[in-house]
Amino acid sequence: MTDAADTRRAATIPAPAAPTLRGILVSLLRADAIVQLRNGRALALGTVLPLVLLWALFAAKRATTLGDPLFLVASCLSLGMASMAVLGYSITVARDRETGVLQRLRVTPAPTWAIMLSRLIVQVVAMMAMAVVVLAAAFLFEHVELSPIGYVLTIVVLILASAVFLSIGQLLVGLIASADTLSAGGRLIYMPLVVLGVFGHTSLFGTTFEMVSRWSPSGVASSLMSGAMDPGASTGETWLAVVAAAAYTVVFAGIGIRWFRWTVR
Amino acid sequence: MVETAVENARPLRASEGRSNLALEVTDLRVSYGPKRAVDGVSLEIREREIFGLLGPNGAGKTTTLSAIEGLLRPDAGSIRVGDVDARTHPSAARARVGVQLQSTSFQSSLTVREIVRLYAGLYGVELSNAAILDALAEIHLDEEARKRFRQLSGGQQQRLSLMIATIHDPPLVLLDEPTAGLDPQARRQLWDRIERMRGRGRSILLTTHSMEEAQSVCDRVAIMDHGVILTVDRPAALVEKHRDDPQVRSVARGEVTLEDVFIGLTGRDLRD
């Protein structure tokens, strides 16, 4: 225990040096990356599911016509991104909000935007890694080969597509307070997202379904990516998909950020 | 313990100027919708002072702390942390404050060592692996360095939380019910740590429901209810001041205690 003499001797504590933004971002990114790597469910949903779908779709294609092989690969990427954003990102943020992790971060000098940006960057990088795995599997097992420019464009477009799905995740975590409710609600939204993304370019369920599917968030993302994979075959619809993706991102993220609460209390 | 802490209580001097203030809150007002949770609270925490904020549930203690921490935006009032205006420079103010929240948690997938590294980085403190282990050894958690936060006991979590709150050696530390849920041994250890922090020149603002805690470690306490501060003084002086108050006398069971003063001023009614 400190005695009174110690108390009198103690000098005034100088103000601590202010942390740099770079230091803050590096610390957040490192921690968020570790959390992402240790999240086994996110890893399984984000990587194994698209690979299973890839195998299933190409197996089905041998018997029926589900669509262009590039679109099938793009659909697998959409599935992976939807899984990561809707079942991974949003639920993790909701749980961290519920347990007070976000509040603890907020009382540090880290700006709130940096706390969220770090999480989003880690998600985008994870989606990129998933895309590399899926594209490699498509090349190795189904001989789907892109031109060098196709690979580059696909990676670039992936950023926009990931923004669409992450904005949906943000919308969910902005509108739903409870992590359990969000988990259940996320699954409800996830299924239609996947179905619309996978069957977006087929007329298996009629032209109305095809139209809805094609311009749904996941349908737009799949169109974007398949367009990027084969730049020579891109049409005006690909550019419309770019506009639609940007619009979805702005609207969903806008609502998700506007209504987001850092605490459930 | 109680006597020592009271003896150590630094006498208040009217001549102390603003430069000696670790925290100055003036006319703070915070509302939740139509409900005014904090209504004109003013308080000053001097350097090397342990200041306790007492009040029943819903009195506005945590709301006051949250406003100081920058977690919510006050309707009115000013908050100065040292010479920094916390409302206009929240990030700079946060760098000067260590915070232990009432219910806090860290990312469940991170180990204790990774948590320390994260928060050191957020406060701009560079720590090597050896330095992290040394810091953990000080709170007897070096053997738990590889464990996840959720694997720690309540007392261990509390020690880690307090260590992280002071990892950047802040001049001011805010503790929201720091001993809630702790066993007597852990509570005593925490009181010792709080007093050591004061010995190193820090100022501490803590909220508590424990009159024993307030008397044992606080130099001064404020009793708060319905969003306003009812009285502020040293614990012994509060008892002396309100000894003959009829409301206090009516609830006293023998010798008037700080708890009698508290209940006399805030009423017997149960709060949510």
Overview of this protein structure:
The complex is a heterodimer of chains A (265) and B (272). Chain A has 265 residues and is mostly helical. In chain A, 78% of the residues lie in helices and 0% in strands. Chain A has helices at 4-9, 21-38, 40-61, 69-99, 101-106, 112-142, 148-175, 179-198, 207-214, 217-229, 236-258. In chain A, helix 10 (217-229) packs across helix 11 (236-258). The longest helix of chain A is centred in the N-terminal third of the chain and has 31 residues, at 69-99. Chain A is globular and about 65 Å long. The model of chain A is unreliable at 1-11 (pLDDT under 50). Chain B is of the alpha/beta class and 272 residues long. Chain B is built from eleven helices and ten strands. In chain B, helix 1 crosses helix 8. The longest helix of chain B is centred in the last third of the chain and has 16 residues, at 184-199. At the A-B interface, helix 1, helix 2 and helix 5 of A face helix 1, helix 3, helix 4 and helix 7 of B.
The main β sheet of chain A shows up as: none
Instruction: Using the alpha-carbon principal axes, give the shape of chain A.
Output: globular
User: What kind of sheet is the major sheet of chain B?
Assistant: 6 strands, mixed
| SS elements, strand count of chain B | 10
Beta-strand content of chain B: 15-25%
What labels describe this entry?
heterodimer, A: mainly alpha, globular, disordered N terminus, B: 272 residues, alpha/beta, six-stranded mixed beta sheet, four-stranded antiparallel beta sheet, 11 helices, 37% helix
Compact overview of the structure:
Chain A has 265 residues and is mainly α. Chain A has helices spanning 4-9, 21-38, 40-61, 69-99, 101-106, 112-142, 148-175, 179-198, 207-214, 217-229, 236-258. In chain B, the strands form 2 sheets. Chain B has a 6-stranded mixed beta sheet, with helices on both faces. In chain B, strands 2-1-4-5 form a 4-stranded antiparallel beta sheet.
